[in-house]
Amino acid sequence: DTAVSQTPKYLVTQMGNDKSIKCEQNLGHDTMYWYKQDSKKFLKIMFSYNNKELIINETVPNRFSPKSPDKAHLNLHINSLELGDSAVYFCASSPFSSVTTQYFGPGTRLTVL
Amino acid sequence: SQKIEQNSEALNIQEGKTATLTCNYTNYSPAYLQWYRQDPGRGPVFLLLIRENEKEKRKERLKVTFDTTLKQSLFHITASQPADSATYLCALAGGATNKLIFGTGTLLAVQP
Q1: How many beta-carbon pairs below 8 A join chains A and B?
Q2: Among A63, A57, A9, which Cα is nearest to A33's?
Q3: Do A48 and B100 touch (CB under 8 A)?
Q4: For residue B42, which of A17, A92, B102, B106 sits 20 to 30 Å off, Cα-Cα?
């Protein structure tokens, strides 16, 4: 049983397009996250939602818009894609707590041409 | 600004030896620190968590130390195996939002 799943696994698109990545967790967690891992493997938090409410927004360009229809899903929509958006995007989830571990999805490799 | 540094070079060791990975941080007072493992093409997987008031934590062949004075954590894998080869990430956190700040990672290669 997959705990945190993402679709698609790979996404190749042209500059200027709009795309979405979907994330679902079946762990019953309250909190979900989006991370970006660049070509140097540096993993950086972008957003976090707790029970559908935005709690972390790390000065990400407003072309990136997370949407949480319910606490088991957190989707990431990206408008007007740029070359610099190419990266691997990871979704994660955790129970809501000040001390807890995070469970990561398999990642979505986005390539912008 | 906050900075987290791990061994910048890949770490190559012989099977059976102890691997020691370093995580140093500045301009931060984390409430706790975590270590994750990441294999190529996969998401990070949690290994160990240590709180600021703990000196050491163990789990099977893994050991983590946390020195808040030196602002350093050491991650040890004893009796290393080729299957331990992966990138290891340290992550610091503090505050109510559980925001994790990751280090740059260390690539460990265990040679048979």
Answers
A1: 57
A2: A57
A3: no
A4: A17
